[in-house]
User: What shape does this take?
Amino acid sequence: MKKSTLATLVAVFLYLSLFPSCLAPSNSPTPLGDDFLTQNANTLPPKETLFPSFQKDETLVPTPTLPTYWDVSDVDISKLDPTKKHIAFTFDDAPNRTLEQLVSVFTAYNERNPDCIANATVFFNGVGIHTRSIPSMQIAYAVGFEMGNHTFSHFNLCNLAKEKLQNEIDETDRLLESIDGKKRHLLRAPYGNVNALVRECAHTPILNWSIDTLDWTNNSVEEICERVLSGLESGGIVLMHDGPQNTVHAVKRLLPTLKRLGYQVTSVSQLSKLHTCPLRIGGVYTRARKNRQ
Ligand SMILES: [Zn+2]
Assistant: This one.
């Protein structure tokens, strides 16, 4: 036998010794397929014994974890100064007849005071959101107002069964989403009436107030301003309404006055971010005091 032939035979022998599966029929079942497991179900140990991770696979779909705090990561505070004092303005019962005037007052003030931009949160009732009111809401959102949820019908939520209550919140969120693209909005309960069920149904923090201007009682411009100035504190939240004409005049007067007193007027979410005061989902707040870290 030639040396080269001998070397070839040795190589073939070694290959077959190392890889015996090459000798097996090519149509052998693949022992890892699901079909194999099904056909041999009676003779094999349970699937989960063969593949200990099999049961875990079903948990690979992550369970959504609900947020604990209101997310302010996207809230713009770039034109605000965290070292100043801050107060949040809020307007309830929108959209109403003075929304466009409020937008004009804020816009005119901001044009004259680019170093001290003012903002606000406006709480809307779903029942008022329709073809005629949507354009003014879009303008309000475009100038920077935060859109808040004041429920659909303005019922006392503490008198409602769970399904109706949830619907009051969710339907308004859905309508507001068509304006600002956001799924959830800060909640202000009508009359500030909150119970355990309201807190359970809320998807966001619930905002009450530290200063009530009582502007809906036909208070004068002077009375509205006086109530704000006498209750002034950094982190406070002022309750006003979209509707009374005197509120528009009072805001026009208050914005420059508050600037002179070292305050910046903000939305609620801006206040929370500026003061590093996280707002818990379902929590009820009247103010957002500065959290000294
Ligand atoms: Zn209201």
Q: What stands out?
A: The chain has a mean pLDDT of 85. DSSP finds eleven helices and eight strands in the chain.
